[in-house]
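U., I forgot to send this yesterday:
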Amino acid sequence: MTLGNAYCAAILDKKVDEIGTAEVIKVLKPVWQAKAETASRLRGRIERVLAFAEAQGWRQEGKNPAQWKNGLDAILPQRRKLSRGHHRAMIYAELPAFIQRLKGSVGIAPRVLEFLILTGARSSEAVNAQWGEIDFERRIWTVPAARMKAGKEHSVPLSMRAIEILRQMELQREEEGKFIFTGQRRGKLASEQKLDKPISAGAIEMLLRRMKVKGEATIHGFRSSFRDWAGDETSFPREVAEAALAHVVGGVEGAYRRGTALEKRRKLMEAWATFLAGGDNGNVIPLVERREVVK
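Result:
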């Protein structure tokens, strides 16, 4: 779409060997500041098209007119950086005490929040978790592609504490109910109602407010807490931590992600559960030792 009439109408009727810097700038200038992210992708795609054309012998060899470094960077103004909101995250050192408070809290919201923290899941993935997605024997939670941000199925190795939470919820399971963390019944005849709907993310937000941490932490922020802990306090490779969060990455990391590295992620998540419980683990090593390992 970006290489079509929407942005590239001015050069669509030109042969690739007729496109120079002036033509590229004519395409980019209208959106360079107004749509910074789109403009960046557009420039990169034009550069790739022209590079392919040169490799095919359809353009003379030379500097690519869509090249940024030592090229368009000297002509186009620096783009305004996108303003992205950052989710407030609890300092990971405070999480073991917070988890103890969750364990002492009654209700489904504390259980789903602890499960979410243990697994590094997004709220939509956790609150909509279904019994059919759990393999107790292999200790794996398979989140379907439809609920994943990247649109790809994701296998989550479950720590022993995560399994314990699921067993607790199993005792409260409604007959034929498919959701693990169910919503709350409402109305006078609530005791007679059959319930098969998931708890809402709003219920977790209310829990954070009741625990007086809403101003310093968000649901999504617990993923950041996990990532900071994995990077600062463990010897696990970066790509294992990224795979645990189901982040979309390319290159070598992307290949690693496709391989899932399930057993390595299992060790990481078990170490995380041990840390959250206030314990220690052989995989967690001092930063000085970690640097030596890297060398």
